[in-house]
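User: Fold this; tokens only.

Assistant: Input:
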Amino acid sequence: MATQDRSQDAKDTNWQSLKDGKPEALSALFHQYYKSIFQYGQKLTNYNTELTKEIIQDLFFKLWERRATLGDVQSVKVYIFTAFRRELIDKERRLDVEEGYLASLNLNDYEEDSPEDLLLIEEKELSDAQKIKKAMIKLPKRIKANKRSYYIKVF
């Protein structure tokens, strides 16, 4: 029982030191909880190792960023495991939004044109340009001058 009390005191000391801005406390907490939180994360992420590592990294980064606003906790372990679970939920929500956005883009619309398609597009543009020239020739001189200056300014 005395060993457990000393271990809990060390955890509380590391938590308080983290709140006081001591980087070694963050390192101590990281090393103290990494293995158990990694195993917990593997179960929650269906053994997605990269996602688990990323969430752990984000969690400890945020702990460091927010160290000045951290409150006192009854159990550092419970706090860290709960924070991990919340980070995972947030990450999954962001991934769902990103996937939905990418799906809505319909990336099939952005496929490269084949050489044949490019040739057809070029021929159509050339044909359209010739039609514009012929139509311009048929216009009266006064309108032709105005249209030509407009055409030159726009294009």
